[in-house]
Amino acid sequence: MKYLVFFWCLFGCSLVISQELPSSLGVLKDSIEISPGSPETYTLYLPSTYKEETISPIVFIFDPAARGKAGITPFIEASEKYNYILICSNNAKNGPYAPNLQIADRLFKSVLPSYAIDEQRIYIAGFSGGSRLAATIAVLSNSIQGVIACGAGFSRNPLYFPTARNSFSYVGIVGYRDMNYREMHKTKEWLTNLQLPYEMLFFQGEHQWPPSEVMVKAFDWLQLQAHSKGLVEIANEELSAMVDETLIAAITHEQEGRLHSAVVAYENILNNFSDQEGIDSLYKKIKILKRQKAYKKTLASEKKVAVLEDTLSGRFVNRFNEEVFKGGSDDDFDWWRQNLKMLRKKYSTHEQEAYQNMGFRIERQIFAVSIESFGGFLREGKEKEATYAKDLLMVVSPKSPFVHYQLARGYARNNLPIKAIEHIEQALQCGLKDKEFLRNTKEFNSLRTTKEFIRVLKGY
Q: Are residues 87 and 194 in the same domain?
């Protein structure tokens, strides 16, 4: 990682050079080259209050599919509230770490001297694989103030896990139906053991970028963290208003019987506003709530679901690992069909939403493991294993146009045009309507003018 070590030595230079401001602030600007003629670009959002003569905090964002606009959009409201510069790579995406870290390094070297940046308030964010990349960069450097991790935790390589040497603040955000929901809870446990400051936010959603209002809450907390470190000033009146807002939410949770949520809100006040007067009584309030049967019942129920999810998830993952390296299923995937049928029957209409969400997450996890493994095996030339992952996807979601589209992308990326065309056609058969979307998929660039591609699109 010597290139990263070199990069972090560049910090300390706050001069603004060679970058013209867009004609108007508060507007997304796409495809800015990191250097003249470079194929690597980024998407930029400068808040409407940005000024060249005043330094501003910055967020580097990584989307798993290198979609600059999609990556920046959830952050715009927070950017306007707190004057953050937003930068999202159009090149770093899910895949091996080495090339992505090099892409990130070149991006940082281009951006940091180009805008009026507060070098003490450099943040990094990502979604899914982009979240893992963001956390990895924060771990490898000593210059990241905070991480906004959406839909995934750390790298799967323990070498890139945070240690006691790290000091960044961490916000984890995940949907209740996200297949990485349990992973984010385990991330919380790791951060707790390290005593790193963190906040966990949840929303009603699947594996996706969180909505803007949730992102604003993340930056509200990061603002408090910056205040506690002496990096920004927050007026006492504003702090009191924030306490009142959290207190109202806690009381509402308590009155409506959501005692666990109430305790979390009260504890947030104690953790984030320890210097504010009149909050000591909350310690007693929390003790009383934690002794109530309803609170204990909620905790027990959550633990029961978590244990069950880990057990079922482990069963599916173990089966996958056993079969994939054999390159086939001894019973022609009958075990998968039976167990998926049981999972759907038992949990898709369960009377408790927590179990419905759990069943949904497990099935999505099977899909994610299969599609990610498929792409990795193709890159490594492991045709037998890639075929197994593809065949399992046909068991999990045989009529999903998205599955066939992703398979087609994988085959096209690895110069297997016949198989790519086959799955493009199946995606159309399964209901994919947007032909322009297919034409604009960059993995299909080499296919776009072929007779087979044109024939398939004309046929639907």
A: yes
Question: Rounded to an integer, what distance in angstroms lies between the CA atom of residue 120 and that of residue 122?
Answer: 6
**Alpha helix locations (H) across 273-292?**
281-290
Q: Are 309 and 343 in contact (CB under 8 A)?
A: no
Question: What is the 8-class DSSP label of residue 197?
Answer: -
Contacts of 277 (CB under 8 A, 6+ apart): none
Q: Are 150 and 128 in contact (CB under 8 A)?
A: yes
The set of residues, in sequence order, having a beta carbon less than 8 Å from that of 242 and lying 6+ positions away, is: 220, 224, 273
Kind and range of the H or E element at 369? Answer: helix 353-379
Residue 1 pLDDT greater than 60, yes or no: no
- Show the domain range for 413: 307-458
DSSP 54-101: S-EEEEEEE-TT--HHHHHGGGHHHHHHHT-EEEEESS--SS-HHHHH
Q: What is the pTM of this model?
A: 0.91
**pLDDT (tens digit, 9 = 90+) per residue, 332-355?**
999 999 999 999 999 999 999 999
Q: How much is the pLDDT for 15? A: 44
- List the CATH number of the domain containing 400: 1.25.40
Neighbours of 442 (CB within 10 A): 11
* pLDDT at 95 (0 to 100): 84
pLDDT tens, position by position, 440-453? 998 999 999 999 99
